[in-house]
Amino acid sequence: MDRVTGLGGIFFRARDPEALRAWYRTHLGIDVQSWGGTAFRWVDGNDVPIGGTTVWSIGGGESFAPGTASFMVNYRVADLDGLLALLREEGCEVIDASGPSEFGKFGWVLDPEGNKIELWQPPEGR
What we know:
- 17% of the residues lie in helices and 41% in strands.
- The protein is α/β, with parallel strands linked by helices.
- It comes from Pseudoxanthomonas daejeonensis.
């Protein structure tokens, strides 16, 4: 079984999300959208889109609990339910899983240092 197949996104917790978003917009040129982040499109060596994105977002951090880190990484997976079952069998601390949505299915696990990791199975064809 494939486990992680790619990087879906990186999420930062911030004390002042608006100020931090403005810093990244001004100093690094990141096109921060009204929802708090951006989606970097995947392209090949010729800058042709190849059907995927990596989300980058800054927020207040409510979704990071019970993790304590200032970030959360979202990994793409092919079979969320299968991977969560396998992680449980291996003794990992699986937190929860969502039902299907327009964005796909999500599940969460804590690593040994308490960092919350998001696992994402994109909708079919994405």
